[in-house]
Write a structure and sequence with these properties.
SH3 type barrels; alpha+beta; six-stranded mixed β-sheet
């Protein structure tokens, strides 16, 4: 296998294409990885093939040559296919219990070095124990005292304030809600600003209309005065007829 250290998450390898190094032929896709619970190492994986993926084949981790976008394995056609060891376990779904008897969560994945197969951290989903919210948290190997086929017993101190590996759904939803709330507030402020601007513009138009009306009325009054001043004087009225009798 390549000598450079590669730390990967187990789930990243699922369904990855598996290629025979010598023939370059595809032999299937990764279906499930298996650990030795005593050494805490990946000891092999099950490869699925066939139309519905119903054909399964075991590959020991020692057969893995390279892990990249494809997984290259070394197959010796002169040797029979290997069988899965009895001690091989898949830790996904293990119940995580503290050494005080409390349930802390469930194993959902793990990080390991593909060069050696050594597990570095388990990833567990909290059950809300002691105020730890939903999310994915790191479970160091040193914190595990016992691991079996259904559950793992860990140090309570190690999981009382665990390091979060990925944000929980509640936090993402909260961020989205906060964004929508802020966006709504900005929208309201923008609408209010537009209303204020429209109101201000309307007031300006109204003031301008009143100003134009006042000027027009002054002009009309002035024209009336000018026409009155330029009109010829009216003749004096004739005196009434006197009685000559």
């Amino acid at each position: 296998m390549s000598k450079s250290q590669q730390i990967v998450r187990r789930s990243e390898l699922l369904n990855r294409r598996t290629i025979d190094r010598k023939t370059a032929e595809e032999v299937g896709r990764v279906d499930r990885l298996w650990l030795d619970p005593h050494s805490q190492r990946t000891i092999g994986f099950t490869c699925k093939s066939g139309l519905l993926g119903n054909k399964k084949r075991w590959f020991a981790w020692a057969q893995v040559d390279t892990v990249g976008e494809n997984i290259f394995v070394t197959i010796n056609p002169e040797l029979p296919q290997l069988d899965q060891p009895e001690q091989a376990v898949c830790p996904i779904g293990l119940e995580v219990l503290t050494d005080s008897g409390n349930k802390a969560g469930t194993v959902v994945d793990y990080l390991f070095d593909v060069r050696t197969g050594t597990v570095l951290y388990y990833l567990f989903k909290s059950s809300g124990w002691r105020g730890v919210l939903d999310g994915i948290y790191l479970l160091p190997m040193a914190a595990i005292s016992t691991i079996g086929s259904k559950r793992a017993i860990v140090s309570e101190a190690a999981v009382s304030e665990p390091q979060q590996y990925a944000e929980g759904l509640h936090k993402k939803v909260g961020l989205v809600a906060e964004f929508l709330h802020e966006d709504f507030d900005r929208t309201l402020k923008n609408v209010a600003g537009v209303k204020r601007g429209a109101q201000s513009l309307a007031e300006k138009f109204q003031d301008k209309a009143l100003e134009v009306r006042d000027v027009a009325q002054e002009k009309v009054a002035e024209l009336k005065r000018q026409r009155h001043e330029s009109a010829p004087p009216e003749p004096d009225p004739e005196p009434p007829d006197s009685d000559l009798s």
